[in-house]
Design brief:
It holds the Pfam family HET. Helix content is 35%, strand content 14%. The chain contains 17 helices and 15 strands. The N and C termini lie far apart (73 Å). By secondary structure, it is of the alpha/beta class.
Length: 490
């Protein structure tokens, strides 16, 4: 049988757009067709999502009615989230898709009109290099980019967080004043000092900020009993939430904080490809279950919520909001004008972002610069790609930093490719946010671009011997000079 992709061959510069047919019944099978076009030829939307499940793990068993007080069983445990594959009709043929994509298609299917959506998973893998090279144009030309985070979970954290973020956007002036007043309570340590009457005033101002006009939300006019939820969270996650004012904060504080924590654990916020997809979008909307919000407002509210939650916390260093590279300013701009060096800086900035193919550690970031540092080539192995990147960076005077980065991985607790040369970093390693990987960017006097270093055909690096400085041992740590800050030696 001829494949659907052979039936719809792509001409130069073309893409395949999915035609999602309407249905008046939510339970009807999903029926789709394909149409080939040039991105600017006809209007279409684009989907930004995770191929895998929306969560890496989820609480089990799930409560049946979390929204109105049905909280998880006390004997719950975390287990790997399983999103079974589902099936759709694509050009009359049965096509297997992931559960998350199936849910997205269900969510975006209209009752009375077709939708034209570009979806990467419904493209031909054999044409991947060409499609990746066009990704920036595909998402930039789309009339709308839908950032699909998945269905709302048993925790109903989406129906809490998105209305909460909307409330923060609507109360911008009051929010700024509130944060300023909270910051004034901080002493020189990492602890906020509140008197009993100040705690009540703080919690009342926070409650007024949180109230939502959306009847679907647990924050609707403050009618839901948040004490039952916060008591449950304190009982089963005591170490984390007792630090978040758990001994003195209001139930609503703990409820919202916990909802944020679970919401930001969604796999979407750690996916590397979404960085460029949202960066290139002219208009993007975040969608989770039934709730949606403009991406610009969502990002602004998230940054405000980060300041607010830090100020509400009993300890200022508590990281409730995570470290998703999706919100990093360093991805939008860089002081580097050379696209190769700018690419490497962005790779460092989002080393925690994940991707299925290790080569996408590089390829997913190419569209931030025009022209890009290189063109995607999936015929290269990951190691061949790293070597080509090293060659380009060494020619630009970054030999020292690259060698020290590789040396740092030798003693890293995270497994690296042991078949690679010792001088070559394994860029596919994704460091969790709490792991401190030493950053050698402070090293001055980098070799100039004409340094006599080269990588031969046998993957051997040859370069002049160079003294980097004195090694000083302090409290079991080896600190590289030449000048060691006195703050380090205290």
């Amino acid at each position: 049988m001829t494949s659907v992709y052979e039936q719809h061959p792509i001409r130069d510069g073309g893409i395949r757009v999915v035609i999602l047919h309407p249905s008046a019944q939510a339970g009807d099978p999903l029926e789709c067709d394909l149409e080939v076009q040039i991105p600017d030829e006809k209007e279409y939307e684009a989907l930004s999502y995770t191929w895998g499940p929306p969560y890496h793990e989820q609480p089990s068993p799930e409560p049946s009615d979390f929204h109105y007080g049905g909280y998880p069983d006390p004997d719950f445990k975390y287990e790997a989230y399983q999103s079974p594959n589902r099936y759709i009709s694509l050009c009359g043929q049965t096509k297997q898709v992931t559960g998350n994509l199936f849910d997205a298609l269900k969510r975006f299917r209209q009752r009375d009109r077709t939708r034209r959506i570009w979806i990467d998973a419904l493209e031909d893998d054999l044409e991947r290099s060409k499609q990746v090279a066009m990704m920036a144009n595909i998402y930039h030309s789309a009339s709308m980019v839908w950032a699909w985070l998945g269905e709302d979970s048993a925790w109903c954290e989406a129906s809490t967080v998105l209305p909460f973020y909307r409330a923060l956007v609507d109360a911008e002036h009051e929010l700024g004043s509130f944060i300023q007043d909270l910051e004034a309570k901080a002493d020189n340590s990492l602890v906020y000092r509140f008197q009993p009457d100040e705690v009540a005033q703080r919690d009342d101002r926070f409650r007024r900020l949180c109230v939502s006009n959306d009847p679907r939300s647990p924050l609707f006019k403050d009618e839901v009993d948040h004490k039952a939820a916060s008591d449950w969270f304190r009982q089963h996650t005591p170490q984390k939430w007792n630090r978040f004012g758990g001994q003195e904060g209001s139930p609503l504080t703990v409820f919202v904080c916990t909802s944020l924590f679970f919401f930001l654990k969604r796999a979407y916020f750690g996916r590397r490809w979404v960085l460029q997809e949202l960066h290139q979008a002219q208009h993007a909307v975040v969608c989770c279950g039934e709730f949606e919000m403009d991406w610009t407002d969502f990002r602004s509210a998230h940054l405000s919520a980060t300041l607010l939650m830090r100020s509400m916390a009993a300890e200022r260093d508590l990281n409730v909001m995570g470290n998703s590279p999706l919100f990093a300013d360093s991805l939008q701009s860089t002081s580097q004008t050379d696209p190769v060096v700018a690419l490497y800086e962005r790779m460092r900035a989002c080393s925690k972002a994940e991707c299925h193919d290790p080569r996408d550690v590089v390829y997913a970031l190419l569209s931030f610069d025009d022209p890009p540092a290189m063109l995607p080539d999936y015929t290269l192995s990951p190691r061949q790609l790293w070597i080509e990147l090293y060659r380009a960076l060494i020619a630009r005077g970054h030999l020292t930093r690259l060698i020290l980065k590789a040396a740092d991985q030798v003693d890293s607790p995270f497994p690296r490719d042991t078949q690679s040369p010792s001088w070559l970093s394994d860029f596919s390693i994704t460091y969790p946010w709490h792991y401190f990987a030493f950053d050698y960017a402070y090293i001055e006097n980098e070799p100039s671009g004409d340094v006599e270093a080269r990588i031969d055909d046998k993957e051997r690096l040859s370069c002049p011997l160079r003294c980097l400085g004195e090694v000083v041992f302090h409290n079991g740590w080896a600190v590289l000079g030449p000048e060691v800050s006195q703050d380090v030696l205290k």
